[in-house]
Amino acid sequence: MSIRMLPGMASAEAGPTYARVKGEGVDTTHGAILYLEDISVSFDGFKAINKLSLDISVGELRCIIGPNGAGKTTMMDVITGKTRPTSGTAWFGQTMNLATMTEAQIAHAGIGRKFQRPTVFEQHTVFDNLELAMKMDKRVAPTLFARLTSEQAGKIEAVLRLIRLNGHEARPAGLLSHGQKQWLEIGMLLMQEPQLILLDEPVAGMSDAETARTAELLNELRGKHSIMVVEHDMGFVTEIARQGIVTVLHEGSVLAQGRMDEVQADERVIEVYLGR
Ligand SMILES: Nc1ncnc2c1ncn2[C@@H]1O[C@H](COP(=O)(O)OP(=O)(O)OP(=O)(O)O)[C@@H](O)[C@H]1O
């Protein structure tokens, strides 16, 4: 991460920002869950994001790639309300203007983000982590110590299978491998049923086998959730992009967009990656 901190800024890794509840009232009648229009972000006059426009369709798995410093993290910070755009607009569905919402309101509306570094509750078991994530929903907080309904238990079971941690549910999360912790955190996001999931470098630090399993996991989520994945690992991106759109960011703008084979063959993309 090439993030320079300015006084008063919160750390990008400050902690989990889970979407709290399934988004209600997200108007996706025109088919898009997210619209970024002409977004710019300046830090002391330096344009980290420069007139960026991008939209994500409902159920799409969009991969975002780009060299270091391209503005990928800053873009996610704008979507989650951590950084305010200097100009431009960001819409969640047709009607929610993200620029007027706080980080907590955006999370509550249904945008869930997973940071690069896993932030699971290490002392708690895998099962408890998933249960706690589900019960962070403020509306059910009074039932924090109540028994799970069979529907809730079934949901946890389904997520455990999906994240390949069935059989590990009684283990303290602190004893999991790095990859397993990342899957658990994805599971915790899923428990909250976000409308849009943002994953920041999900396979960073994973073994090849863990990376392959993460690709399988994301392929299983395809079509069921709207997901934006920022990743440097091109093999992984190729696995999950399939025939979908890959967006290449460079100097804060969209440099190229298309299928993975198309963007990989694009001279401008080759140039920024190889620095020719
Ligand atoms: N808080 C900040 N203050 C000043 N400059 C910043 C700040 N955050 C990011 N930048 C700069 O903005 C540019 C974009 O950074 P950003 O972290 O969004 O890029 P990135 O594409 O996520 O890079 P990487 O792949 O290395 O994580 C970089 O030049 C970075 O140094």
UniProtKB/TrEMBL annotation:
Keywords: ATP-binding, Nucleotide-binding, Transport. Residues 34-276 form the ABC transporter domain. This is Urea ABC transporter ATP-binding protein UrtD. The gene is urtD. Transmembrane segments: none annotated. GO terms for molecular function: ATP binding. InterPro entries: ABC_AA/LPS_Transport, ABC_transporter-like_ATP-bd, ABC_transptr_urea_ATP-bd_UrtD, BCA_ABC_TP_C, P-loop_NTPase. PANTHER family: CONSERVED COMPONENT OF ABC TRANSPORTER FOR NATURAL AMINO ACIDS-RELATED, HIGH-AFFINITY BRANCHED-CHAIN AMINO ACID TRANSPORT ATP-BINDING PROTEIN.
